[in-house]
Amino acid sequence: MSATLTYRANAAVITLNRPEALNALNGDMIQRIGALIDEVRQSEAKFLIVVGAGSKAFCAGANVKEILGKNSADQKAFAQLGQLTFAKLDELPIPSIAVVSGVAFGGGFELAMACTFRVATPKARFALPEIKLGLIPGYGGTQRLPRLVGASRALEIIATGRILDAAEAERIGLVSKIDEGDDPIAIGLSFATVLGSPPPASLLMARQAVARALDLPLTQGFEAEAALFAASTQTGDAGEGVRAFLEKRKPEFAGT
């Protein structure tokens, strides 16, 4: 299987499973990833962890051979397949955590950026090297990277195609944490534990509100925040959270 889905504790785990090809993406693998994300959406998992099989790569990017021989319309459809598949992570009600060990180049870097959070091991390396082939990123990299690190820095990374090590990735905000562990799934579970167990509806609304900050003028962002805040107050978990605070006890969120 080019990608597999397993469950550990309260987390779903998608493993990019082509270690002989450094987990490089192709059309079939991207479709498989999309199908697995759809399956996770129907599960009771609280988190999604995305890892790469083997010790050398999270994902080395797209299969360059698939680019050859396609006309412009086919190339656009190929890019949109990756974009729409990775966008499923934005719509997933639970947060996703990419654990990057080894290289995350091209489409692999774009997949990691599509996740809610990124954790790296010290040997993680990131790059969008498409410019060196006379291309540009096509799976969302030109849109997600500026939102993570700012337009000027993103353009420099894209224009040079240079490799970022884990320390730089953490310094500029690409990754939330560097973990010294050697088991990517265990690293993802550890990070999920740090996140705790926030009410699912509230966490989703928080993600939506932060996303609005990137897309809307400030005054419209305030309006979106107010609407999402109002919606959050009407959940069962909000009532439980407020009562627990007043009663000086730990809340027992039910996911309602």
TrEMBL record:
Keywords: Lyase. SUPFAM superfamilies: ClpP/crotonase. Belongs to the enoyl-CoA hydratase/isomerase family. This is Enoyl-CoA hydratase. The keyword Lyase applies. It holds the Pfam family ECH_1. PANTHER family: ENOYL-COA HYDRATASE, MITOCHONDRIAL, ENOYL-COA HYDRATASE-RELATED.
